[in-house]
Amino acid sequence: MGKSKTKKHQVAIWVVDETDLAKAIARPDDWLRIGKSTQNTVTANPTTNTYDYIDQEQPETELESYSYSMEHDIAAYRGNKDYEWAFEKFYYADTGDNSKGLVLIAFLDHEDSAGIYKAFVAPATFSVSSADWVSGVVNISIAFNDTPQTGIVKGSGQPTFVLAPEKPSIVQVENTVTIATETTGATIKYTTDGSDPLLHGTTYESEITLTEDVTVKAVAVKDDAASRTVKAYCEFTE
């Protein structure tokens, strides 16, 4: 299959006026998809600091965090749920808790398997920046209030979001390698040849005894959602 550019319809945005993620996950019908938008841009807003270390000739820039935000020009079509949602916030001048909720983004071009897509969710503040009745758009800003939590969305209709498990830790003590995750009920898949553990992994059941140098890769899986893959180069010692 050839490479292709991601189209705006392949990045689905849902919002909900609920700040409790567990409650929002339990009520998928409450999520509102922003559909008729003339732009679909996520700004990462990276925070960097420059440090002048005593043992280096040149200062070094460190990337410390991201603070995501979005701008949407929602087409002003009476009756469309996303426009009515944005207009209500404008009309009632929602502030404080009334302006908070959750934003869910599913990347429909990143399909892990049939009907399962990479996604992330974050608490957010929704604010109306402008309402232009000439161009027919209401601009709403979505500011992420925390680092997004990764997971998956099943299907592209009303979202069924599944939170990804915590990534595993790989610990070597002499010639013994232990892999663990903090997520209860998660299965760990691993490989020792550097291949993708999600595709080619063996289920981890007990510690690994080294007989040679290997590259261990591991991933935690629960309810079809996978953690980030971690890897470690493990050296065999005589």
What descriptors fit this protein?
238 residues; mainly beta; nine-stranded antiparallel sheet; five-stranded antiparallel sheet; 48% strand; elongated
Map the helices and strands.
Layout: E1 11-16, H1 21-26, E2 32-33, E3 41-43, E4 46-51, E5 60-66, E6 69-75, H2 81-91, E7 100-113, E8 116-132, E9 137-144, E10 149-154, E11 160-163, E12 169-173, E13 176-180, E14 187-191, H3 197-200, E15 202-203, E16 208-209, E17 214-222, E18 225-226, E19 230-234
Antiparallel strand pairs: 1-2, 1-7, 3-6, 4-5, 6-9, 7-8, 8-9, 8-10, 10-11, 12-13, 13-16, 14-15, 14-17, 17-18, 17-19
Describe what you observe in this structure.
With 238 residues, the chain is mainly beta. It has 3 helices and 19 strands. The protein is elongated, with a radius of gyration of 22 Å. It starts with 10 loop residues before the first strand and ends with a strand. The model has no long low-confidence stretch (mean pLDDT 90).
Taking all Cα atoms into account, the compactness measure Rg is 22 Å
Give helix and strand order, one letter per element, not per position: EHEEEEEHEEEEEEEEHEEEEE
The major beta sheet can be summarized as:
9 strands, antiparallel
Query: How would the global form be characterised?
Result: elongated
Count of distinct strands: 19
Overall pLDDT score: 90
Kindly name the structural category: mainly beta
- Beta percentage is over 45%
Our count of helices gives 3
Segments where pLDDT lies below 50 for 5+ residues? none
